[in-house]
Design a protein that fits this description.
The complex is a heterodimer of chains A (about 325) and B (about 325). Chain A has about 325 residues and is of the alpha/beta class. Chain A has 13 helices and 13 strands. Chain A has a 7-stranded mixed sheet, sandwiched between helices. In chain A, strands 2-1-3-4-5-11 form a 6-stranded parallel sheet, with helices on both faces. Chain B has about 325 residues and is an all-alpha fold. The chains are: A alpha/beta (about 325), B mainly alpha (about 325).
Chain lengths: ~325, ~325
Amino acid sequence: MRKWIALALVLLLGLSMTACGKEEGKYVCQQAVHPALDAATQGFQDALKEALGEDKVEFQLQNASGDANTCATIVNTFVSDEVSLIMANGSAALQAAATATADIPVLGTSVTEYGTALKIENFDGLVEGNVSGTSDLAPLDKQAAMVKEWFPEAKTVGLLYCSAEPNSQYQVEVVSRELEALGYQTAFYSFADTNDLAAVTEKCASESDVIYVPTDNAVANATGVIDGICRPAGVPIIAGESGICSGCGVAALSISYYDLGVATGKMAAKILTGEADISQMPIEYAANTSYVYNKEICDALGLTPPEGYTPIEK
Amino acid sequence: MTSFVNALPGAITQGLIWGIMAIGLYLTYQVLELSDLTVDGSFCTGGAVCVMVMLAGGNVWVAMGAAILAGMLAGAVTGFFHTKCGIPAILAGILTQLGLWSVNLAIMDMSATQRLDVNQHSLLVSLRFLKEVPKGDKPFYMYPVLVVCLATALVIGILYWFFGTEKGSAIRATGANAHMARAQGINTNVSKLLGLVISNGLVALSGALLCQYQGFAEINMGRGAIVIGLAAIIIGEVLFGRLFRNFGLKLMAVSLGSIVFYLVAQFVISVLNINTNYLKLFSALIVAVFLAVPYWQKNLRPRKASKEVPNAGN
């Protein structure tokens, strides 16, 4: 038995020799593989390279593949390497990074509501300490107004979201209040994971005139299922972001995750050059929003988009 | 390699925390020979209860006590399904685990993650203390490795004592030979129920420690716990099975197995610089290798084995 273990150890050590020699750099912990999160990471890297020079900055990208516990392992590596900055992409990544260090600057992105994610009461946009970042929240009141713009005749709006998503709950609650102020009846339809998604969507589609889905990673990964149920049922969906809209929605108020990543990268550049102090930097939001629609689904449902909407390019 | 060495304390702490969960699993899987899948749910229950009690103003000891009780309750439910409703243990565990999703969500106030801020609460362990103690900001006795080591020693000590008492011996007898145990007048159903209760209490304690360590509880935090637990048990057995015969030492082997598992995971991230998206594949391979080693050993030495049983049948 001992021989086997020794052999296994030697193999691992042999491999390690070739992989050594890492320099200091800026490290990214991403929560899961997901087109929106990937785009934000890309934007961050591009912006930082441009601001500081290609050869001046080194990235280490680690992805937790949706497993929040892995975030702790990754963050432990970064902190013990004493990196100069951590970019945390996603809520769990941010929570783990903010727990792990009080000194290394931590920038979050793709986090919808920092007050909720970091449990800050009376959150005013400034996290303080070593944490700041960018939020992927598209203005929710404008999203509610979109429902009115597209479907003034509708009566009931179903809010479909994943109960495992920390930010979705917040979004649907705010949107629900906004919609009720506009005279709609709203109902919540939450699913636990993709296994009960189909059943919940069926129920939601049969009881609603219009469906709203927030920026929700679980929905983003399962738009095919939702489209397969809602399109035949003739129920249109207003989506929280363009990625979901291109899969199953009719229209969305879009923010670009790439731009969000770029904004985060610019913040990082300011922190690293000493131009700004992270404890004084408030959370930034997406600078540009645009109204988009899904031509294919609009045609199938016989809907004509109002003015000011551009079709989503696929 | 320095990166790996620097990250060692974090990896060891994480290994020890999961080790307590693995010890719980050992009690059902090895001692009682029951496959209990409740752990994936009760692990999160422990974390959720701990965070919510602390957010409500409870101190860390009360929170952990409540977490253990909640885990025990979950174990009792599985025990009830199994012994009173005649549901096979593996199914009973799956049912409880499934139901716990909703329960856990309800505990966490219908939010998928709850943050436990290390700045606002006095926690027993935190990722942050790994850096703060060596710097002198926190006293030495708050060093996470030390704290979790003591917790593990305490758990092993109590279990060693308990499994030497009449009740504890009855549980062991039930696992070793249920028919014989019944013939000796042991109520095997009570033993199984008790075993499940203790096991899930430990699993919840581990969840409570992990949520403090990483600074948040998350609805998916228990997902895959059973795999990590089994890995720890098997690694511990393969590495230390020949040395450790005593019950207490066997429990220690499980904890050491868990540390080895996390060291390998950290090694894969820090030294091999492997894309963390492949971490799960590596975890599976690690467990597969450790499962295969005893089998290979047996096949490589067929002669010795035949010598050990001369004329066995006569």
